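Protocol step 4 of 6.
Sequence for Sugar porter family MFS transporter (Streptacidiphilus fuscans) entered exactly as in the expression construct, tag removed. Do not edit the line below.
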Amino acid sequence: MSSTRSSAASAEGHLGHVVFIAAAAAMGGFLFGYDSAVINGAVTGIQHHFRVGSGETSLVVSVALLGSAVGAVSAGWLADHLGRIKVMQLAAVLFAASGVGTMFPPDIVALGAWRVVGGMAIGIASVVAPAYIAEVAPPAVRGRLASFQQAAIVLGIFISQLVNYALNQAAGGNPNDHLAGIQAWQWMLGAETIPALIYGLLSLAIPESPRYLISNNNLDRARSVLAEVEAPGTDVDARIAEIQHVMATEHKPRMKDLLGGRFGLQAIVWIGIGASVFQQFVGINVIFYYSSLLWQSVGINASNSLLISVSTSLVNIVGTVIAIVLVDRVGRRPLALAGSAGMAVTLGMAAWAFSYRVGTGTNAHLANTQATVALVAAHLYVLCFAFSWGVVVWVLLGEMFPNKIRALALSVAASAQWIANWAITVSFPTMADWNLSATYVIYACFAVLSIPFVYFFIRETKGKSLEEMG
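Step 5 output, structure tokens:
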């Protein structure tokens, strides 16, 4: 009996250690979400401090996404040459440097430059964290541990909005008010340094990926790490031999492997690109990057607009949990179709409400009925996105491509997603100045168009092995 209890305690302790390793790596996802969304609370403060308009604002917000694309493209090469842990530490340094740099920018150009640095860190974290978790996690719990990354991203978004609101309130209710001699919006951007330092310290406490160690012929260290992360009783030498065999037979895809079909690329690659573009063209990141500006443009004060950002971020967490629970039970296509329909309706509701906006600038406002409809629509819209396209697209991109081209096709589709994200982010302030209601009608149209796209082009991957995908 005591032997059984001892074995159970050992297994629980082992699982707890593996969970800690995955959670430490997922801290990169937390910073991904935090850095992406923290600008939301600071954007009106930046506008007033530097006396810039919609054009300059959109460039400062969106330029980080170009840095993200560079970071994502270079992360794989860096991870293969430097190791996963060193690349995590590089990302932590870039996040911290961006936090300090954006806190004390001498001008709007310098602020944009430091935003690029933070964007590069986002791109690196978006690649290295899930790759590391997949390589370290035991097969029996890999799916659950892989979900840590998405959970960490939405948690990072929520915490950034909560910190923004708290700092704004502490400073007096306006992002340009001072707290300890520094404007609130500066504290918002600089606060990122704290989780960046924690990420760097955690990276010192977790082991290097056994796959990377084996690729560099460091078998003794790889044996030690595998004994640390694999289930008790695993034949470590057999696992090393298995990894060596897979690495020796792996096909390194090249761009020409993606070619074929009527329009240059294989049809499945275009479908992956289409899914990525639709995910962004429904306008979701407008909520996470500009919601404080959005709500202020219809007459809600800065403090309350930040509180709304906190609540929508909390709804985002709830929706993500729903998706994680349902994606393997209900399937990818039903969730995507339900989310598309929900987003089309709620975006239409928001467009209707915003069409009643009266006045401009600080004099703009909505009547009580329309303001209530807009608030409810925004929260339901975020919920519909989070339980569907927010998670489903990333699951599909990891499953839908044939083995031979999976890695490269995924990187192409992900790059398309960054570009689409940039296009929506850079265009929103100008489009909102032109016609806020019409802007939301456009997003609603893309939500409607995503329904036939899913119905006719997306194959269900639930319960299928990766080998069945071609």
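Step 6, annotate. Strands lie at 178-179, 182-183.
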